């Protein structure tokens, strides 16, 4: 798969919903594409399963959670995203199950996206590093919740109690940072904002043992993806058609 040229992402859509486990997940790979989409007048909403409260070793979760929410809202604003929802599930022990599926299905019904973006749900990252449970569980729950959202008999309380009509209109799910990437977006013009969106997570980066340079990391990754996409800076996705 790695030697295969990447195809252009679909462009005949207007609304996207990005669902990930933690603050910073979208900034490590997808935010350059989000900036390109919002520049084109598309609407993108972020939904975070957790507040990332277990992500800073030297900071208590009670303090880290609100701080990381603020950093995520700031990072999203850099790439043109104004709506950021936090579902309140526990960071580090995120469970795949009906509560998470219901919460994501609620967001799909509420925002009615044509494209759903999520982080890598597979066991490994590109290059072979082991993925973590929160990412895998959030991704699998998102895949299932997209289908749940279109079925009025699954989570009927969303309609009966909250008035949220079923939404079967999701046409694609795009998996960022997937080892099985198939498509890509040219982010040459939004590369700087992608870097700035990651730098907005200053407290999180400061708490890492080896945070590296966000500019160097993201540009190197974008150049590597671009080798399969015309030599530009690129953000890749595994595109799943529904």
From TrEMBL:
Keywords: Zinc. The keyword Zinc applies. Pfam families: PIG-L. SUPFAM superfamilies: LmbE-like. Coiled coil: none annotated. InterPro entries: GlcNAc_PI_deacetylase-related, LmbE-like_dom_sf. Transmembrane segments: none annotated. GO terms for molecular function: hydrolase activity, acting on carbon-nitrogen (but not peptide) bonds, in linear amides. GO terms for biological process: glycoside metabolic process. It comes from the Bacteria. This is PIG-L domain-containing protein. It comes from Amycolatopsis antarctica.
